[in-house]
């Protein structure tokens, strides 16, 4: 009998260990159960071990089934836990690769920082010097611009455009690495979005971003959470519509139930055909329609939103509500404040 009670007690201990995991899964999936008697036979036996001696054959089988159910729940919880751990180990590997690449790029940007002024003015200085020595007009004649490889005006203009991209790269890398961006604080959301708007429209002339946000809207969050989400969404819009002369993006943010509710949409070509019936599929890691694409942008967006847990029971207070691609691309989501 003592051995039997120990087995029962062990089963209860295992069940309790994974009870919170089971509860969270039930809440997350909105499973509704009919009311039932919570005073199970197993609980009665544990409360009064002497009762085990008087169990009928039917009650003994019922008790065995309860223990089997607990064991199955425990196994399911362990399997789920292992699956989650495996997924997060893979997530960490991906983030380690991205972080290492980012550190290398930041290091290069710091090395180039001292040459920033030279990079930005080289084209104008060379052009001014060629005109001063009366060489520019000669180099610009048809006979000296026939071949691309020795067309000086064309080569200089290409170099100017490349230098502009280098400056954009430097500014981006040096700006994104500031540690203050990771501190949770009360932020003026309109101010944060105006900065993101100015940065992107400065670097991409074909991009037009329209904001709809209350001037006084504030929220406890971090700069990096907002910028990571919106930078990836904007970059996604640019990459999907790289052949367009102009891309219009609309972003609206408002407070709903103590969370920030975002609506983001562009007027581009929308999602590729293979995602039309299942748009949420784009959130899966490595899912991409672009040749040589890494498929990490929307995965990062989803992970960042889910990290902003605003509920002690639900695993993801922040969550993506909707993705559509009827006219352009639209995504709406909630952002919590637990970081």
From TrEMBL:
One Pfam match: HATPase_c
Enumerate the spans annotated as Histidine kinase domain. Answer: 107-339
Kindly give the Gene3D superfamilies that the UniProt entry links to this protein.
Histidine kinase-like ATPase, C-terminal domain
Indicate the segments annotated as coiled coil, or none if absent: none
At the top level, the lineage of the source is: Bacteria
Q: What is this protein called?
A: Histidine kinase domain-containing protein
What is the scientific name of the source organism?
A: Teretinema zuelzerae
